[in-house]
Amino acid sequence: MTRQKKIIYLAAFSEDGMLLGQKLDMGPVTRIGSASGITLDQWTARAFREADALVFIGAAGIAVRAIAPYIKDKTEDPAVIVMDDCGTYVPESERKLS
Hints:
This protein has helices at about 15-25, 40-50, 60-65; strands at about 10, 30, 55, 80-85.
């Protein structure tokens, strides 16, 4: 049985989050905010359509509000993981995405 590589989208809200996302080496990291030219809603809409998993590096409340309009069914929606921008608060099981 061949294991297919998952498509993982990462979003960061700070410079520390960007650095952590790059260290994770799971895919490209998007910096959300006015300087990046992409809004959180734009990123989340695209990620929900295309990704197998979303990783938010920042506050859990931001992630929850961002995904709320897109949640449909647990069997179809991508996995969603949130970690702080130091990588301190992430359950061990969620560190093994790829």
